[in-house]
Fold this protein.
Amino acid sequence: MTFNMNLWKINNNKLEELPKSRLDSEERLEKWIAKDSSITGLDILVIGRQVFTYFGGRIDLLGIDSEGNIVILELKKDKTPRDVVAQALDYASWVKDLTYKEIDAFATKYLNSSLRDAFSNRYGVDIPEEINKSHSIVIIASELDPSSERIVQYLSTEYDMNINCIFFDFFKEGNNELLGRSWLMDPEEVSERTQSKKSAPTWTGLYFVNVGDGEHRSWDDCKKYGFLSAGQGIKYREAMQKLKMGDKVLAYLKGKGYVGYGEVISTAVMVKDFKLTDGTNLLDQNLTQPNIEENKDDPEQADWAVGIKWIKSLERESALTFTGIFANQHVVCKLRHPQTLDFLTKHFQIHSN
């Protein structure tokens, strides 16, 4: 079914629908994404724009994710819906065979930096030893016809292809311009299907959790008081809400390594409502990072915390790592990387259920 986005302004407690407008140039949207890819909702590093393929085509934007997989972002522009789908598939047939040397050349030309350095600066970890093991296609448009949407959904659901569509709608009110975004399919579900199709290792039940050590939270507090948290935005809160009682987690500290192995003993609540095992409130403690209180009364912006019984935890200086260890910008995800699992199972003495 063709997607349709509408926006309303609340004026004197009345809803006023904002009129849609046509973006004067899709090149503006391409520039916005190239400058800040987070507006797509994807965690990628853009490594090329208008990348020439060896058969004469030009990929609008080429990116790489934190696992070293390549992402093709193709804007509809003046192409017909079916043409943009066919063109994106054609580009994917070319991208799948790109070598590290070729990808590095694109990145160096576009970023004036080697791929290795750009990747490390962006994600805080070394680039995986093997990259481009997988790739994904993202078609960007204001709308597609129902037939093209069905084709994309068919490729994703029946053939487990990592292909999806992002819809951007443009609105104007006086001199104000607004941009809205949505997906044709849940990107996490599409990614999960793709991993399964590619014979990803069986999930052992262990979750990767990014500690988010910094401005709003501290690993020292997490370790001492038995919790993990994320927030200051809806997607971070939703990530914590994925964790259920009994889930096993491996805590990762960006730029350091893995610092903890534990079990979830209470599900996500706003940090102001989080209680320690002795019944006292977390925010009443002498926290290393008191900024965790920021936006504490706002359900969408507050930090949300889950209770963790640490089976083994380490000081940040003793974090476990090796070149190529799994690291991800996602707050929570299923940990499937065989080498990382073998390494952490040994060091944290993780036993199978």
Remarks:
- The CA atoms of residues 47 and 107 lie 5 Å apart.
- The mean pLDDT is 90.
